[in-house]
Amino acid sequence: GNHAEEKSYYFKGKKDCRSLRVYMPLKANSAVSSLVALRQNMLDVKKCCANDGDSSDSDWAADESLETSRNRDWGFEIGILDELLQVFSRAGPRGSFTQPEKMQLDARVVEMWAALMHDASSHDVTLITAGGPVRAHRAVLCISSSILKASLNSAMCEGQTQQVEVPDTSKEATLLLLELMYTGTSCDEIERGVLVPCFQLAHRWATSHVLPMLERMLASFLTDESFEEIAEIAVLQGSNELEQACIMFANSSKGVRRRLREGAGSMALRKLLGYDPHKLSGKKRKSF
C-alpha cells in the first residue's frame, strides 16, 4: 500500500445497499495510520449525515450525495476497525519496534565501560549543562555523534575549549545520555522528567545507537496523563516508531480518544492520529 498515491474503498451500510467510496492517501502511511484515517472518515460521514448533510467541516469524499445516504449506519464498520486497531495495539507492549541485533555480553565488559565513564582522570571534554558541568571522553562523544565530532574538531569555540554548552538540558538528562552512550544500560530508576529532555538532546546530537533505546523507554511511559507530551515529542522529532506506538496507544485509550474529540493536541498531532487538525480546544474567539 505504501507505493500507491491514493486508493479508494467501497463500503456498504447495513441500511442502504448503495456503496460509499472513501479516498485515502496511502503513500508513506503505515497500516495503523491508514486504519485511523479510514475510521475518522467514517465518523465524519456519520456526523455529516446526522447534521442533515452539512459537509462543510468534513474532508471525506463520496461518489454519491449525502441526501441518499442519511439512513446509512456505519457503526458496524467502525466497530470492526476498532477491533482491528485493538489487535494492533496488543501486538506489542506499546507498538512493534524494530528490534536491534543483540548479542550476549559479559557483564564485566559493561562494568568496564561504566568505570571508564566515571574515570575523572581521563576526561578531556566538559559539557556545560543547566545543572553544572559534566565531564566525558572526547573519543566516545565523537564516535557516538557526528554532530559532536564536527563541533569538537572545529576551529570554533567548542573545538578550542573542548567545552560544549547545553544550557537547556538538565545534568541528570545529560548523564543518562552519556550512560547510554558508554554502556547502553542504566542502574537508575528513570523518570519521565529526565527521559524527555534526554531524548531531545539525543536527537539534537544525532546519537543513532541511543535513540532507539530512548524511543522504547518513552513508549513504556505512555499513559493517559503522559500521552500528549510524548506524542507531541514524537511528532516534533519525526520519530516514526514512537509515533506508531502513540497511535496504537491512542486507539486503545478511551480517555485519550475523548480528549482528542474535544480538540486536545496540536494540529500536527491531531493530523497524525486522524482527527480534524483544525478543531483545537480552547475558548471560542468572539467578534465585535
UniProtKB/TrEMBL annotation:
Domain BTB: 123-184
Database matches in InterPro entries: AtSIBP1-like, BTB/POZ_dom, SKP1/BTB/POZ_sf
Domain of life of the organism encoding this protein: Eukaryota
Family annotation (PANTHER family): BTB DOMAIN-CONTAINING PROTEIN, OS08G0495500 PROTEIN-RELATED
Protein name: BTB domain-containing protein
Organism: Calcidiscus leptoporus
